[in-house]
Design goal:
alpha/beta; TIM Barrel; 6-stranded parallel sheet; two-stranded parallel sheet; 12 helices
Length: 299
C-alpha cells in the first residue's frame, strides 16, 4: 500500500462558524486556500483544533464536502475520527471514504480506560472495516488520559497492512522515536503532533508534523520541514526557535481557542469557537499579539 503521500506539514483545519454556530462556507474555502498557498502538504479534517467533538454527523458531512470540493485534489485530505464507540467510528470512516478522503485517522477512545486487548480490538476492527483505505493512528494521551502502548501499535502495524502511520502527540520524543524504531521494518510513518518538536521529530526519523500553528503561520511552519529536508539544519532549527514562543503562549488560553484567536488576529477571520469555549480574554489576546509583534508577524 502506498504510504509516500503521508509526509510534510498537515494542519488540523480550524472550522469557521458564524454567530449561530453554522458553517461559514466562504471563510472555510478561503482558509483552505490560504494554507495550501502557504505550502502545507495536506489537510486534516476534524483534528483536535477542528473541534470535532462539537459537531454532529450531519455537520461533519457538510464540512467535509466543502473541504473536498475546495481542496480539489491539490493535497491529500485526512479525516480525523475521535468517537468512543467502535461502530460509530466505522460509520464515520465510511462517510469519509464516500467523499474520497485519502486516509482515516483514529484517536484512542476518550473517557474510557481500555485494556491493551480492548484497544487493539478497537483499532483492528476499524482497520478491517476500511480495508484498502490507509489508516493512521492518533496518539494523544494529553486529551484521552492514556497513551497507545508501543506493543499495541507494533501488533497493529505488523498485522494490518492499511495501518500505515501515526500522529504522536505524546510530547515525549522517546515515545516518538520508539514508534519509529520498532516499526521501521515495514515502513511505518510517524508524524510529530507537537508544534514545538517538529525539528526534534524529524531528527529521529519522523516524516512530518500535524501542526495547529499552520492554520495561521503556514509558511513559517513549513519552512522548518522544507529547510530540514533540504539539509539546512541550522535554518530549520532557527525557524523552530521562532515558532516555539508563539506556540507556547497559546497554552495560556483554554484549549483549543488560541488557534482561532491567532488566525483572527492575523486577519484570517475563522470566527469564534463553539460554546462553551470562548475567545481568550483581552489580556491573553494582547499577549498573543505581543509575541507575534516580537517576531515580525504583526505591526
Amino acid at each position: 500500500m502506498d504510504k509516500s503521500f503521508f509526509s510534510g506539514i498537515v494542519p488540523p483545519i480550524a472550522v469557521p462558524i458564524d454567530s449561530e454556530e453554522r458553517l461559514d462556507e466562504a471563510r472555510l474555502r478561503k482558509h483552505i486556500d490560504f494554507m495550501i498557498d502557504g505550502g502545507v502538504s495536506g489537510i486534516l479534517a476534524f483534528g483536535s483544533n477542528g473541534e470535532f467533538y462539537m459537531q454532529d454527523e450531519d455537520e461533519q458531512e457538510e464540512i467535509l464536502s466543502v473541504i473536498m470540493d475546495q481542496v480539489n485534489g491539490r493535497v491529500p485530505v485526512y479525516m480525523g475520527i475521535g468517537e468512543i464507540r467502535t461502530k460509530k467510528c466505522i460509520k464515520l470512516a465510511h462517510m469519509g471514504m464516500k467523499h474520497g478522503v485519502k486516509a482515516i485517522s483514529i484517536l484512542q477512545p476518550m473517557f474510557l480506560k481500555p485494556s491493551a486487548d480492548e484497544l487493539y480490538t478497537h483499532f483492528a476492527t476499524i482497520a478491517d472495516s476500511i480495508e484498502g483505505t490507509p489508516m493512521i493512528l492518533y496518539n494523544n494521551p494529553g486529551r484521552t488520559g492514556y497513551g497507545i502502548p508501543q506493543d499495541v501499535v507494533e501488533r497493529l502495524v505488523h498485522e494490518k497492512e492499511n495501518v500505515i502511520g501515526m500522529k504522536d502527540s505524546s510530547g515525549d520524543i522517546t515515545q516518538t522515536e520508539e514508534f519509529i524504531r520498532r516499526n521501521r521494518d515495514v515502513g511505518f510513518r510517524v508524524m510529530c503532533g507537537k508544534d514545538t518538536l517538529i525539528f526534534a521529530g524529524l531528527s529521529v526519523g519522523a516524516i512530518g508534523a500535524v501542526c495547529c500553528t499552520a492554520n495561521f503561520l503556514p509558511e513559517l511552519v513549513c519552512s522548518i520541514y522544507d529547510k530540514f529536508m533540504a539539509g539546512d539544519l541550522k535554518g530549520a532549527l532557527e525557524a523552530q526557535f521562532i515558532l516555539n514562543p508563539i506556540r507556547l503562549q497559546m497554552d495560556k488560553s483554554s484549549f483549543p481557542v488560541a488557534t482561532k484567536d491567532l488566525a483572527n488576529i492575523l486577519g484570517h477571520e475563522v470566527g469564534r469557537p463553539y460554546l462553551p469555549s470562548k475567545p481568550s480574554p483581552e489580556g491573553q489576546q494582547e499577549a498573543l499579539r505581543d509575541v507575534l509583534r516580537k517576531y515580525g508577524y504583526l505591526k
